[in-house]
Write a structure and sequence with these properties.
By secondary structure, the protein is an all-beta fold. Helices cover 0% and strands 66% of the residues. The chain contains no helices and eleven strands. Strands 1, 2, 3, 4, 5, 6, 7, 8, 9, 10 and 11 form an eleven-stranded mixed sheet that branches.
């Protein structure tokens, strides 16, 4: 994909615009989707308050090193079914275009014992073309097993219609996560 970021020194708002082409194929129903995903994300530090997509320190009495951010972005998705599923009915798996908003909250607690990350995001995309709206909630809690977060134990919950396939999902996930 392509990322265009505008960061201007001395101006307190920064912006990122991401364009990502996707090609998805479903091996169960044999459908194929070519899509283009775009997302605008502003960044705004706000000392003394929650930053927009930027972690800011917040004062919590029992947790002195706590950081929080508001999550906000404007996604747009457009897609074309290159091949519909084998038994598609009239009006099913139509080409689509969606636009909406992604909202959420992120928390980071830098504890000496085990740093913790919490994030919840809600995505609401309305059909500009096609009939299917997308409403999706994802919440995750990661307990970092190393100070730098290279290894973590994560628990997540997701519910709603998936952005890329429009299939309904309701899922709990427990994972051991690693990064390098």
């Amino acid at each position: 994909g392509l990322v265009v970021a505008i960061f201007r020194p001395g101006i307190r708002w920064d912006h990122a615009f991401v364009i990502r082409p996707d090609y998805l194929l479903d091996k169960v129903d044999h459908s194929r989707i070519a899509s283009l995903r775009m997302e605008y994300t502003p960044y705004k530090p706000m000392p003394g308050a929650l930053g927009i997509n930027t972690f800011q320190r917040v004062n919590v009495a029992l947790l002195p090193r706590t950081f929080a951010k508001l999550i906000f972005s404007v996604p747009f998705d457009a897609g074309h079914y290159v091949q519909r599923k084998d038994n598609a009915t009239e009006g099913e798996q139509e080409n689509f275009a969606h636009m909406g908003v992604r909202l959420g909250l992120g928390l980071r607690i830098d504890s000496d014992l085990a740093p913790v990350d919490f994030e919840t995001r809600y995505t609401a995309l309305r059909a500009v073309h096609g009939d299917v709206d997308v409403n999706f909630l994802k919440t995750s809690l990661d307990v970092n097993l190393t100070e730098k977060g290279y290894l973590a134990l994560g628990l997540s919950y997701s519910r709603g219609r998936l952005e890329d396939t429009f299939k309904m999902e309701k899922k709990w996930t427990l994972a051991l996560k690693g990064r390098y």
